[in-house]
Prior knowledge:
By secondary structure, this protein is an alpha/beta fold. The chain has eleven helices and eleven strands.
Amino acid sequence: xxxxxxxxxxxxxxxxxxxxxxxxxxxxxxxxxxxxxxxxxxxxxxxxxxxxxxxxxxxxxxxxxxxxxxxxxxxxxxxxxxxxxxxxxxxxxxxxxxxxxxxxxxxxxxxxxxxxxxxxxxxxxxxxxxxxxxxxxxxxxxxxxxxxxxxxxxxxxxxxxxxxxxxxxxxxxxxxxxxxxxxxxxxxxxxxxxxxxxxxxxxxxxxxxxxxxxxxxxxxxxxxxxxxxxxxxxxxxxxxxxxxxxxxxxxxxxxxxxxxxxxxxxxxxxxxxxxxxxxxxxxxxxxxxxxxxxxxxxxxxxxxxxxxxxxxxxxxxxxxxxxxxxxxxxxxxxxxxxxxxxxxx
Length: 345
């Protein structure tokens, strides 16, 4: 064992024994160098090891301190929603929420949105400025009902990271992910139909169901593995569910990423009971790992999964650029979009 590793092990032992309590300042580099007869660089290496082990933290111009132990918050329990289809209510509470004007001096943790002040957005703002200065008026015209072909081609490339091989012709540009979900629901469901959703579900989606006259059947959801496949299967046996709507990647608010094996089992369930899946992947691109998690759509071979997403969580919500990959329901989605908003700006 090297000298710095030996010193790190000694200091670690003293911390574990409580000789240096959490938050206390540790001996200086010079003091340890003199006490143990080692070089200053050896002590610095030892402290670096302890930092990597998250036992010690360095504070500029103050020295090294025993790191306070972080206690992990308990995971929420698996949800226990009412086990029957229900009509949606609570529009008044949602309306109050969306009417509240965000305060500029408060970070909006209650809203899923990126920090638009980050310098990473400079290329985008520069490109928009260049278009304005050069008088490019194409953005003021009607475009294809499916959306700008160049944009669809780039989104098709982006979707490769999620395991999807989708051509630009299979994509429809929408006004954010919200419209993507809306058109998807209208394409595969009718008023009075039952939609199985994860619990809790995005309040905007629930209000869409309310507005379309559909019923929600909440399925118990685990904060680690996602929607309960066992509970979902029981629901599919008991109720005439028309579609399953869920957010399997970087779920908000539970935060889970549904394991790939469970995504495949979910798709198998949908095939067995011949129901569609509307996959809300709006948060999928903010996963910490690369490549990002696969979508359920990436396993879909018969076109029953309608994949919905947007740039609202990765670039800026004000762009209002979303998309849907509707699989076998492309023509139906195009009709719903046409009678709704027409072509997207």
